[in-house]
Amino acid sequence: MIRVLVNGALGRMGTEVCKTVMAQKDMDLSGVVDINGADKTIPYYDGGVLGVDTDLENAITCTRPDVVVDFTRPDAVMDNLRKIIGMGVNAVVGTTGFTKENLEEIDKLAQEKGVGVLVAPNFALGAVVMIKLACEAAKYFPNVEIIEKHHDNKLDAPSGTAVLTAQKIAEVRTAMKQGHPDEKETMPGARGADFEGMKIHSLRLPGYVASQEVVFGSQGETLKIINDPINRECYMPGVMLGCRKILGTKGLIYGLDKLL
Ligand code: NAP
Question: Contact 75/59 with Cβ under 8 angstroms?
Answer without folding.
Answer: no
